[in-house]
Request: fold
Amino acid sequence: MQNTPHYIEKIVALSQRHPVVTVRPVHAENGIKLINSGVHISDSLYDKLVNHKLLLPLDECLSVDNAVSADSIAETIANLIDETAFGELLCSSSEKTKLVDIFARLPINPVLAFKLTVAREEAPKIYRHSLEVALCAAVLAMHTHAPQHEITNAAASGLFHDIGLLHINSEFLDAEHSLTDQERHHIYAHPVLAHLVLERFPEWAQEVGRAVLEHHERLDASGYPRGLDACEISTLGQLLAVAELAATLISGKSGTPAPEDIRVILRLNQGKLNHQFANVLIARFLPESTARQPQTYGQTLSSLVEISTSIQDWQSIARLHGEHEIVMLISQRIERLERDLADLGVDLQFWGMIDTGLHEDGSSLHELAMAAQEGRWQLRAIAQEIHRLWTTLSPIHPLARESIWAWSQRADRPPQATLEARAKQAQATG
Reply:
């Protein structure tokens, strides 16, 4: 499972720029030696490696020049703190010194060093994101007064959490690529793949490996790959989920997010994420707001209409097919979203009464826009949960199946794609 064609392809591509050499013979699963030790990997060996099941994971047989090391990781972490908005997570230079030292002491064995090097050279967005999540995870652990070994585990869990993505077709990770259901299941498998890698190494096999497996689980059991609920997810797994959200927010194009933006997003995720770690995240940001992406009244109202329409469509389905388990489950998710939006002052039953004067109130309009944007993504997450559960919970009744699946397909459209589709429809109808 670890020797996927997509991972081998990345290794061969890496070998075009950095010497990749076998440090032990590569054997097929049946014991036949495919490649001797001391051989330079090249594209001429691709077919041989892909067409055989290998006895060992390939990266246990290889080394590469200029491999990632604990020192190089620590240097990059220091640069992130000094040169980006991630530095605002820290309160003092002594915290920076402590964090950089923790990363410099990470026990990175040669196999994981090789895999991280593949990420750095062939999937730089994954590598950068992994370092950002590692930094956020370490900060969260530090500011909940965790002992040093737990901060180390938090840093390692962030560093390794997405290595499973290296074994997946890179096209699936392109934001412009529209995923099929089969392709989406490959994405859902990446925590499992990462866990399989880590379980081979005792230093990371327990707490870190478990957290990596759980980093897409959610407290309300809406996550993946196992649909665990709050009492089943480890503390480190819950921390890692918040750390990934933090890294995504901070590395956004608009710069450091304002604390009120973070509060909006976290309040709409309060049933999914650990409150203690979420509050640490809010507290770590400076109160000064950076320049915000301008929002228009029309865009915000359009998003709210879209959410309201989608929820009304679901409620119609629920009235007709509410006896089915999947309908009851998704209705619970929808009701929670409505409550969370209402807590933020967004009552979808009365969106038409929203004050048009908001276009002159930049602060209120911005908060409303953030709630609408996050609410739209929450709907999309609900639709994707339907897709994950479909094989086990899809109803037998054909009308119910058709209605639920059609709703999930509509709700799963990215917000921008939905707006563009609506604009084209309006143009077509003149």
About this structure: Residues 297-429 form one domain.
